[in-house]
Each structure stands twice: as structure tokens, then as C-alpha cells.
Write a structure and sequence with these properties.
Elements: H1 15-37, H2 46-73, H3 78-100, H4 107-130, H5 137-159, H6 162-168, H7 172-188, H8 191-198, H9 213-241
Helix pairs in contact: 1-2, 1-9, 2-3, 2-9, 3-4, 4-5, 5-7, 6-7, 7-9, 8-9
This protein binds retinal.
């Protein structure tokens, strides 16, 4: 497999390849934006903007390689995908911690969020990569469902648990930001399990969507752009509106 020359094989019909390519550009541009704007916001928000830039920056580098992998091999870049997520999703948890810290967020909360997100991703990886192939449909469902439990725990933490309670006492601008961020976790993050189901044998509720790599990667790519750039923009507007 010859990497680094994938753009030479860019098939105009390859709409998934198109989302890998534009995903890469969008992540790169967002990174430049967050890191430059970091210089303009009040000191208390600088680490949050740095983390936003790290999230999109780490994703940009992964998209650079995933795009090549997809175009050359025509397969899911599943290992790269999960390395990206295992770095960036815990950093999204760090964002929740940083903005609720002034209201008293403890390290324990950060570890709960990180542990749940790593569990969610490791279980998803087992279902998607270790048990690849039609003969493992059952395992794919079981590990997907277990991963879903960790996802529900994160949802509970940010909607009802510690994060929600801290946000309520953190002042109006942090409360608004947490409201937006947890909507991303509810709606934007839900796109991933849908993509996983599309890629799983048996499809969604018995409907078979072809369990192909295209649907799965299309859903993951769109979700990544919405969630990673969207999270950063929520943090950015919090920092700008609170810049006194
Ligand atoms: C930037 C990347 C993000 C925000 C990735 C989020 C990924 C998920 C919320 C994945 C969730 C999954 C399930 C809830 C069940 C099936 C397996 C996964 C890993 C796709």
C-alpha cells in the first residue's frame, strides 16, 4: 500500500473520501482559529481554548492519515479512528472540568468522565475491530451495547449528575455553555452509535443498511466535524462573552 499519494487517486464518486478531505481541512482551520484567538481571551479561559485547539489539532493529523488510508485501501481506518477518539474524547471531558472548576469541580469528577469515555471507546473498539466480520455479529452487538452503557453514564453526569449541579451554581455564562455542550453530547455524540449500527451485521432493528464501511465512515466523519469544532466554538463564545 502506497501512502502519501492518495489524492492522486481521488475518485469523484467517493463521497466518503470527500468528507475525509474536508474534515481534515476543517479541523486544521479550526485549530488555527482556536490557537490564535486564545491570545485575545481573558486569562481564565486560555487553557480551555488551548484544549479546544488540541482537540481539533489531534483530529486534523489523524484525518490526514485516515484520508490516505481510506483512499488507498478503501477500508475503514479503524485503528487510527480509535486512537484519535481515545485522545480527543477525554480532552472533551477536560473541557467540562475546566469550565466548572471555579464552581468547585474536583479531580474525582474529571476521572469519572475520563474513565467512562475510555471504557466507552475500548468496548466500541473491541466490537468494531477485534470482532470484525459477519461471523461475529453477536459480539458486535454485545460490545456495542456495553459501550452504550458507558455513554449513558456520561450523559447522566452532564445532564443530571455532578456537572449539571456545578453548572447551576457557576453563573449564567458557564451554565449556558454547559447547556450547549451537553446537547452536543446528547445529539451529536448519538450519531456515532447510529454509524456503528449501520456498520454492524443485522443493521438497525433488523434492517440491513449494507453494513458497509461507507455508511459507517460517513456518519463518523460528519459527527466528528460537528462535535469537535462545535465544542470548541461553545468554549470560544463563553470566553468572549465573559471577557472582562
Ligand atoms: C471527537 C470524537 C468523539 C466525540 C467521539 C465520540 C464517540 C462516541 C460517543 C462513540 C460511541 C459508541 C457507542 C455509544 C456504542 C457503539 C460504539 C461507539 C464507540 C461508536
Amino acid at each position: 500500500m502506497m501512502l502519501l499519494n492518495a489524492a492522486a487517486h481521488f475518485d469523484p464518486q467517493d463521497y466518503v473520501g470527500f468528507t475525509f478531505f474536508t474534515g481534515y481541512m476543517a479541523m486544521m482551520a479550526a485549530t488555527v482559529f482556536f490557537l490564535f484567538e486564545r491570545g485575545r481571551v481573558a486569562d481564565q479561559w486560555k487553557s480551555s481554548l488551548l484544549v479546544s485547539g488540541l482537540i481539533t489539532g489531534i483530529a486534523a493529523v489523524h484525518y490526514y492519515y485516515m484520508r490516505d488510508y481510506w483512499m488507498e485501501a478503501g477500508e475503514s481506518p479503524v485503528v487510527l479512528r480509535y486512537i484519535d477518539w481515545t485522545l480527543t474524547v477525554p480532552l472533551m471531558c477536560v473541557e467540562f472540568y475546566l469550565i466548572t472548576k471555579k464552581a468547585g469541580a474536583k479531580m474525582g469528577l474529571l476521572w469519572k468522565l475520563i474513565a467512562a469515555s475510555v471504557a466507552m471507546l475500548v468496548l466500541g473498539y473491541v466490537g468494531e475491530a477485534v470482532y470484525a466480520g459477519e461471523q461475529y455479529a453477536t459480539q458486535q452487538w454485545v460490545y456495542g451495547a456495553l459501550s452504550g452503557l458507558a455513554y449513558f453514564y456520561i450523559l447522566w453526569l452532564v445532564w443530571k449528575g455532578d456537572v449539571a449541579q456545578l453548572a447551576a451554581s457557576a453563573g449564567p455564562s458557564v451554565a449556558t455553555a454547559v447547556r450547549h455542550l451537553r446537547n452536543f453530547v446528547l445529539v451529536g455524540w448519538a450519531i456515532y452509535p447510529i454509524g456503528y449500527i449501520m456498520g454492524t451485521y443485522g443493521g438497525l432493528f433488523g434492517m440491513d443498511f449494507g453494513h458497509d464501511a461507507s455508511a459507517l465512515n460517513l456518519f463518523y466523519n460528519i459527527a466528528d466535524a460537528i462535535n469537535k469544532i462545535g465544542f470548541g466554538l461553545v468554549i470560544y463564545s463563553l470566553a468572549i462573552s465573559d471577557n472582562k
